[in-house]
Amino acid sequence: MGHGVTTAPDATEALAILAREPVDLMLADVQMPGINGLELVRQAHEIKPDLPCIVVTGYGTPQNSVDALRAGAFWYLEKPFEQGHLDVVRALVDHAIELGRLKSENRLLHKQLRSKYGFENIVGNSAALRGALDIVAKVADTESTVLITGESGTGKELIARAIHFNSRRADQMLVTVNCGAIPEELLESELFGHVRGAFTNAVANRDGRFLAAHGGTIFLDEIGDMSPNLQVKLLRVLQDRTFEPVGSSKTIRTDVRVIAATNQNLEEAIREKRFREDLFFRLNVIPIEAPPLRERPDDVPLLAHHFLEHFNRERDGKIRGFSQDALDHLASYHWPGNVRELENLIERLVVTHGGDGEIKPADLPRQIHEAPTLSVASPRVPATGLSFRDVVDDFEADLIRQALEQTQWNKNRAAQLLGLNRTTLLEKIKKKGLDPIKH
Ligand SMILES: Nc1ncnc2c1ncn2[C@@H]1O[C@H](COP(=O)(O)OP(=O)(O)OP(=O)(O)O)[C@@H](O)[C@H]1O
Ligand SMILES: [Mg+2]
Question: What does the radius of gyration of the chain's CA atoms come to, in whole angstroms?
Fold first, then answer.
């Protein structure tokens, strides 16, 4: 068959070979001096967990074959080989080598995924983000259901992946279902599967995502868009991990970790009777809030540099960095599309900039570089409460006072500076009792 073959007289020698040479497949006898073939398979897997092994049994009893499979053999063959058996051996060898290759490839891909979705790749140092990530780190390796909320583009999916790939289920599947993108009629069958004939186009049985995720994690994205009908069925899965495929009465049990995410305010959806309260409580075991980017301006420069490095690499860009005033503009922009908007912007800058210089304010889109850079530490509402009116009044008065001082009390220019019309500014000055003598 063109394979290189190494032989060993006994198990000890075979293990020594495995430890020093690359081997794609092992064929082993059972009865051997010293360590027997089944024990050899076990020990071989300690050295090379993905090594496919075919065991050759002298006495083809059902028990022997079961023992071989239990020991971790890919398959067993009976001795002596008869004419015609060789074709079977060849086919088995092909299959076994293919399986071994897939297993090690799969292991490698999983390792890459793990490092891609590790915590290190979630960039940001703000207290708001760190707070969320602390919870993520604590709950990742538990079985608890997690509900991630946050505006669009805040990193909900990133967090869901970090949880899965830092859990004991990391080597199993992470199955993502976007509940908002699939029409209601299809979503049920997508999640739970269907049997042949369940509906017009159901020409064959089909497994759903809950079964595909068995042993792993299912990520239910945009859970707030799920129809009330399906919410009932989902509630049951969360309660006892069982469901029936569409058109079937056979109950299926599944072992999945559930992570859900939404950019909707579920409490509001509950008040409006769009979302079941009992389902909310089942999902909201561990709530994690992905904070909007405008509430953590400190993260903007870190993210901007992170994405710049990424896209420079990916797109052969040569941009050296950002000028300080460009960074100031970025940090004070309100980022309605959150991190995704920033990521897209940096990609666009890398692609269109062309040069190897710095990003300057003029390179930024108009709505960003024309926005005034006002740095305001993000205020926190104290647990004891506050007077909204007073706080806002003080804030306004402060801005107006600064504008007036900067313009030596030229009210036209101060109004311009603040983007107010002159009458509004005059009214406010009067109402707040600001005057140049007092200040
Ligand atoms: N803290 C972060 N560090 C690095 N990349 C981030 C961070 N937060 C978000 N991103 C990136 O921003 C993009 C949007 O994140 P993600 O898809 O997780 O957001 P989302 O909350 O699921 O958004 P949507 O509600 O629109 O689905 C992704 O490319 C993600 O990798
Ligand atoms: Mg998402």
Answer: 32
Q: How far apart are alpha carbons 425 and 396 in whole angstroms? A: 11
Output the pLDDT for position 375. Answer: 58
Rounded Cα–Cα distance for residues 75 and 79 (Å): 13
Residue 57 pLDDT class (50, 70, 90 cuts): confident
> Does the beta carbon of 339 lie inside 6 Å of ligand 1?
yes
Identify the CA nearest to 161 among candidates 193, 121, 201, 207.
Answer: 121
Ligand nearest, relative to CA of residue 176:
2
Residue owning the nearest CA to atom 26 of ligand 1: 152
Ligand 1 proximity of 340 Cβ (cutoff 6 Å): yes
What is the separation, in whole angstroms, between the first and last Cα of the chain?
94
3-state DSSP helix/strand/coil % of the chain, to nearest 5? 50, 10, 40
> If DSSP codes are grouped into helix, strand and coil, which group holds residue 420?
coil
Q: What is the mean pLDDT of residues 371-400?
A: 79
Could you count the other beta carbons within 10 Å of the beta carbon of residue 190?
19
CB contact at 8 A, 327 and 343: no
357 alpha-carbon distance from chain centroid: 34
Centre of ligand 1 from the C-alpha of residue 158, in Å: 6
pLDDT for 208-223, tens place per residue? 999 999 999 999 999 9
Q: Cα torsion for 260, 261, 264, 269, to the nearest 10°?
A: 0
What percent of the chain shows pLDDT beyond 90? 64
* C-beta 153 within 6 A of ligand 1: yes
pTM of the shown model: 0.72
